[in-house]
Amino acid sequence: MELTERIVSLARSLGIVDIGVADACAWDTDPLVSRIIPNNERPRSLMRGSRSVIAIGIPAQRAILATAPSSYYTEHYRTINSMLDHAAQRIAMELNILGYPSMFVSRDGYQGIEGLRKDPSSFFSHRHSAYLAGLGSFGMNNMLLTEKNGPRIRFTSVITAAELNYNGPMKKQLCTSCRRCMNECPENAVASGTYPEDITDKRRCVEYSAVLRGKGISPCGRCIFVCPVGKDIDDPLPTDGAIEHIRSYTK
Fold this sequence. Notes:
By secondary structure, this protein is an alpha+beta fold. The chain contains eleven helices and six strands.
């Protein structure tokens, strides 16, 4: 308990908003994750002797996300990714100093748009890590929904040999099946069913992201903005005029 509290305190000091711990063995036993994640993308394959996986998250500010796709949201997205990688590396370093072999997993485990065109996945899934750590449940858009921020949150992970106090997956389903994400998607990539039986068309997302990247305004962000789940749903937003003005700043 003392070690877990120490890591949580460190994470908070690094700007982490959500944090949870999963049992590294859960990838082999959880009925949802074990049938989706290949063996070589599981914690105990990435680091032999791993016992726990720490999932950390930073939410996107909904007022900025309202402008997406835009250069404003693009910079916000990049900043969150940088903060997550820095925090995960610092947490892994602290655990290593304390004598627990640990490794941080970078936010994006793929090589940009071109890498996603070859294989629209990554070598480690942070959303499944956060799911097993009890931070949320999956929605129609295949994103992890949290009680505080819905799908408007980014995650990364730390794999460690430390035996920490871990949580199990969230029991309740947060997705309301309202289909707003499906209706908002400009590429009709979101399936009408529930995850994992119905999977978002990742290749359509990737190709649209490539178009937006050419304008300097990727990623899209529309499906996570319109999701009604989360306590941030009533946060103040920019005026329509301000959103239109911000979106005018493209290449």
